[in-house]
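Why do we bother with holo predictions? Because pocket geometry can differ from the apo form. Keep that in mind while you read this record for NAP.
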Amino acid sequence: MSTLKNKVVAVTGATKGIGKGIAKVFASKGAKVAVLGRNAADGERCVAELVASGGVAKFYVSDVVDEAGMAAVAEKVASDFGGLDILCANAGVFRACKFEEMTQKEWDAVFDTNLKGMFLSIKACLPLLKKSSAGRVVLTSSITGPFTGYPGWSHYGATKAGMLGFMRTAAIEFAKYGITVNAVLPGNILTEGLQGLGQDYMNAMASSIPLKRLGTVEDIGYAAAFLASEEAGYINGHALIVDGGQILPESVQALEAA
Ligand SMILES: NC(=O)c1ccc[n+]([C@@H]2O[C@H](COP(=O)([O-])OP(=O)(O)OC[C@H]3O[C@@H](n4cnc5c(N)ncnc54)[C@H](OP(=O)(O)O)[C@@H]3O)[C@@H](O)[C@H]2O)c1
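The structure, written out:
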């Protein structure tokens, strides 16, 4: 993945969690990292950590549901760093709400950030990615939706499966520009967002994973960095599961029998 050196990458939702892990891995590989998000304090903290480790990074306050704002931020990133090669469309929310309690407002809030936000991020960055010799889009989907279900996340799962539906056509449409579109599908990754679901949830999840641990944000960062590298240039429209084998057991017995 030496080909990431000096590449310019924009990571949405990089102020914390998985996005911050993605930003850290790209910075460690010599990429110039644009940290995108709404929370300026978290964003500046992330940039300070990346710079302290020898990386090149800058924070851009941005909301993925603001079309004009995202377009302006993408232009600013390209003007600051001399172009844009990679977009990691990672920002997302996973507020739990069971179907019978779900209102249209709740449904729309999750769809707005996770799906429309992905669309607007790509829309803003595509004109700049087209100028790169190896443009890349890496989506953060999930195992929830494409492969699994969990009570409270019907709307969330629909958005994460929807991202893959989007990817398969975008990968065809963008191929003429040499841009690939791929997705990472995290399992249960230890982030601030996941910690908010409580220790009982995290313990139950860790015990249901063959590797018996939650993932780290760097586990996802390495997968995203690989898909964004020039070495992965012939991989297009692929969904890469990074879950410690969580979706593999057919039953609880299958896990225990090992
Ligand atoms: N953690 C897991 O186990 C897991 C598993 C599968 C998939 N995922 C996916 O991974 C991605 C990141 O999740 P996470 O666990 O890292 O969550 P997190 O710790 O809650 O972080 C979410 C990030 O998204 C940003 N964000 C949320 N709404 C935004 C908006 N409207 N505009 C811009 N940024 C926004 C937040 O930044 P600001 O608050 O600064 O705006 C924050 O940086 C999501 O797409 C999620 O679905 C997570």
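The chain has a mean pLDDT of 96.
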